[in-house]
Amino acid sequence: MRKAAAPAFVGAVVILVLAGAAVRAARGAGPRREEVTKTRPTDETIPVGYWVWQRIEAPDGATEIAPADLVAQVGPEGWPGCPEHYLCTRHGIRSLAVGPSGAFHYTANVFTSSDFQHHGSVSDDEVRIEERFSCAHPGWRSRPRERRRVRWAHDDKTLRVAVDPSIRGGGWPFARAETGTWWVFRRVSRATYYGQALLRLCQATPSHACAPMCFSEDLVSDPSTP
């Protein structure tokens, strides 16, 4: 994320948290969980739900990513190598959200927490990318209309996706065939996804406003997703 003076940065984070709480309070408690009608996936091959990475499997070994590694800390006192006044996580965060009707959202939060988001839809193993944007860097925004194949396997608790290890930062990492490198995701709740796994702080500039999805808590357009 863009460097800023410590008081301003901390103030921005506090304002963001308070604003989110106010919005949730205005919405009301909503229906109880047992009252929500679950939607049966139209395509049972897709990994419906919310996912956060927990392991990187590579030919030379594996890197485990514990929940504590996803806690953002302000440098330089936080995670080693984090620049002063930046918000960092230990390994960065990679997250996915897939709705029952095929809505798809992938976010890469890099080490310094800047977000690079890819939004679209998925059917079977084909993802259609319709929009890319960043809340931290609003000038990074496009409508590519791309189709990408992905190699993945999933069960109720985990999702394994083949990745191209040469792709860094916010680029599209998923591969259409096995590469020897996999990201393993664990299933999380909707609350954990929006409240902890998805880091997005709008840093609008005079020439670039933040994308509307920077403020959405319905990225896969289906609140019945567990």
Per-chain topology:
Blueprint: H1 6-27, E1 49-58, E2 61-64, E3 73-74, E4 87-88, E5 93-98, E6 103-109, E7 115-123, E8 126-133, E9 141-142, E10 146-149, E11 152-154, E12 158-162, E13 182-188, H2 190-197
State the main characteristics.
226 residues; alpha+beta; 31% strand; disordered N terminus
Description of the molecule:
The chain is α+β, with helices and mostly antiparallel strands and 226 residues long. It is 13% helix and 31% strand. It has helices at 6-27, 190-197, and strands at 49-58, 61-64, 73-74, 87-88, 93-98, 103-109, 115-123, 126-133, 141-142, 146-149, 152-154, 158-162, 182-188. Strands 1, 2, 5, 6, 7, 8, 9, 10, 11, 12 and 13 form an eleven-stranded antiparallel β-sheet that branches. It has a two-stranded antiparallel sheet with strand order 3-4. 35% of the residues are buried. Residues 2-41 have low confidence and may be disordered.
Task: Offer a quick outline of the entry.
The protein has helices at residues 6-27, 190-197; strands spanning 49-58, 61-64, 73-74, 87-88, 93-98, 103-109, 115-123, 126-133, 141-142, 146-149, 152-154, 158-162, 182-188. The chain has 226 residues and is α+β, with helices and mostly antiparallel strands.
